[in-house]
Structures are given as C-alpha cells and as structure tokens.
Amino acid sequence: MLEKLAKYNINFIVAGISSLVIISMSAYMILNLNTAIMKVLIFIEFFCSFYFVTVFFYKVQKYSRIELFFYLITFLIPFMMSILGIFYALNFFSLNRVFLKENIISSFLTRGYHFLFIFYITHIIYFFYLFVLENKKTFYSSISSHFIIIISTVMAFIMIIIYAVLNWVFDNNIIKSYDNKKNEIIYEAETTFYGEYNTENFEYESFSKALDIAMLYYDNELKYQSEEWDDFEKKHLLFETAIIQGGGFFIMVSGREFIYTFYMFILIYLIVNSIILASAIIFFKIFLEKKFNGYIDIIIKGFEEDNYIYAINTDDMDETEIKILSELYNKKLLTYKYRD
C-alpha cells in the first residue's frame, strides 16, 4: 500500500496541484490582480516542475523512445519555463532594466513567454493520463491513456486553427494585434517628434499620456515615466507588458490587451478538452471494461492459477484478436476438463 502511494499517488497529487496552478495562472492573465498572486503561483509551479524533472532523470533509462519524447515535452520544457518564472518573481527581470532595450531579449521576455506558456498545459494532460493509468496491467488503462494524449493534441490543433481564423475574420479588431499597435505608436511618436523644431520643448508627458505609455526612452535616455509607475509595477510583471521599439524610441505599455484573448482561448481549450477527456474516460471505462476486460481477466486468472473454471461466450464477439484468444482459451479449458 505504501509502495503504491509512493509510486503513484504522489505523482497524481503533484500533477493535480500543478494543473490547478496553471489554470489559476491563466485566469490571472485575464484579471486585473496584484502581481504578488502570480509570484506565489510561479513558486508553486517551480516546485511541481522540479519534482517532475527529478523523477524524469531518475527513470530516464527506463523510458521507451515514445515515452522519452512525451516526458521531455511534459517535464523538461515546463521546468525551464519555471526557472524563467522564478527570475520574473524575484524581479531579476524588472520593468525598467536598461538591457531590455535589446530587441531580441525584450521580445523573448515579453511576447515569447506566452507562446512558451502553452507547454505548461502538458501538465494538465499528464494529470488526466495518470487518472486513467490506475493499473498498467489493465487493457482499459493502456488504451485510454494513449487516447488522452491523442485527443488533447487534436483539440490543441483545432483551437489554434479557430484562433487563427477568428484573428483573420475580424481583422485584428477583437483579437488585438501587437504589430498594429506598434506601428501606430511608432508612427505617432516619429511624426509628433519630428514635427517639433525645438526638441527641448517636446511634450513627452502629454504625448505619453495620450497613448497610455508607461515609460518612454529616446536615444537611450529616459524621457518619461508614468506617475502611476508603482501601481503599474504592482499589476504588471515583465511578460504582461509590451515593449515597442523603432525610430530611436523604446516605449513600454501594458500588454494585457494583446494577451487577454490569448489566455481566454487557453482557458476555453482547457475547459472543452477537460469535458471531452472526462467523457472519453467514462466511455472507455464502460465500453472497454464491459466488452474486453471481463474476458481478459478470466484468461489471465486461468493461466496464472492453472485453474480453468469459466468458459468465455464468444458468440456475440467481433472478429478480433480478442475473440481468437478467447477461443484458444476455451479449447485449453476443454482440454483440462477432459483431463480431470
């Protein structure tokens, strides 16, 4: 009993905690909450990911190639993400760091984070995978656990297609486009700035307030920082901001309008996928156990105990390998009865 708890239930409990944390993180992205909440979630997810990656390396030689690929995506990439999250939570990547003015770094730490966040979803899929993998010896668990991964992957592709189609149909009016916003702000900044003959009198403050800019650099010099900067920091970690560069300008605005619909789709995917997976689990449980497990259990028990008591009714069975195996078992049973 203790061995079963150690090998199975701990993984299941940690996967459950991680799933709840990831759902909470997604909800945080669409709500206007204090960053302290997200920092706590990041720390919890780090410990969950650390546990998973430790188990992964401990058992890495026991995995098949397919299992190795699955666990690499499920454990290793989210763990790397959780390390990045710790840097965010500890303010190692703060909003006003000068080095963020490098384009590649700023894009990766802001816009790139949200695409990498998708890998966290694999922990939820793993939770359902463990849910049906109660006993690896059962035919039901073996089949349904593989379908959990297939169904989740197919649903992910469907949601990506729907997201892309909606983005195209509504011409980025409902799903906000970062590139459109960037072009708009850079155009306004360049035309307004170059329209001023005396750059010393350029109204950075009024310009920034009109476009909801939180911070503005020009030629590597800080020109404006919002009076509500402290409140902005309390409600925005770095990946919740949008960094806009061009024409010598480095501008930081809230990125929530770009990520709101993205995480709404993630939550919708999690809800829809969970409903489908739960339905599939129930279906496999009822259908497979009723149709196959009873036959297989009788065969296994007969071969293990060398005690052939029950014959299997194969009249209503489909022409499958299970029927062939059952017929062979019945012949073996008949032989033993005649022998006795």
Describe the protein's architecture and organization.
Strand 3 and strand 4 form a beta hairpin. Helix 2 (35-58) packs antiparallel against helix 3 and helix 6 (121-132) packs antiparallel against helix 7 (139-169). This protein has helices at 2-29, 35-58, 65-89, 103-109, 111-116, 121-132, 139-169, 178-194, 204-210, 229-235, 256-305, 321-339; strands spanning 213-218, 221-225, 241-246, 249-254. The chain is an alpha+beta fold. It has a four-stranded antiparallel β-sheet with strand order 2-1-4-3. Helix content is 69%, strand content 7%.
What key attributes describe this structure?
4-stranded antiparallel sheet; alpha+beta; disordered N terminus; 340 residues; 7% strand; elongated
| SSE string, helices as H and strands as E | HHHHHHHHHEEHEEHH
Strand tally: 4
User: How many helices does DSSP assign?
Assistant: 12
Oligomer: single chain
User: First CA to last CA: what distance?
Assistant: 38 Å
Give me the side-by-side strand order of the main sheet.
2-1-4-3
Helix content: 55-70%
User: What is the residue-mean pLDDT, rounded to a whole number?
Assistant: 79
Query: What is the C-alpha radius of gyration, as a whole number of Å?
Result: 28 Å
Approximate shape: elongated
Structural class: alpha+beta
Strand content: 5-15%
Low-confidence stretches: 1-5
- Sheet with most strands: 4 strands, antiparallel
